[in-house]
Amino acid sequence: MPLGMLKQKGFHADTMDVSVEPFDAEKALRAEFIGISTPMHTALRIGVRVAGQIRKLNQRCHICFYGLYASLNSEYLLDGIADSVIGGEYEEALAALIESVCSNDPVSVEGVAVKGETAHPVLERLEFTTPERGSLPSLDKYARLEIKGEERLAGYVEASRGCLHSCTHCPIPPVYNGRFFIVAAGVVIEDVRRLVQSGARHITFGDPDFLNGPGHSLKVARALHEEFPHLTFDFTAKVEHLLKHGSLLGEFAAQGCIFIVSAFESMSGTVLSRLDKGHTREDMKKAVRLAREAGITLRPTWVAFTPWTTVGGYIDMLEFVESEGLIDQVDPVQYSIRLLIPPGSLLLSMPETRQWLGPLVQDDFSHTWRHPDPRMDRLHEQVTELVEHDAMNGEDASSTFYRVRELAYATLGSGGPPAQRCGLPGMRLRPPRLTEAWFC
Question: What's the predicted TM-score (pTM) here?
Answer without folding.
Answer: 0.94
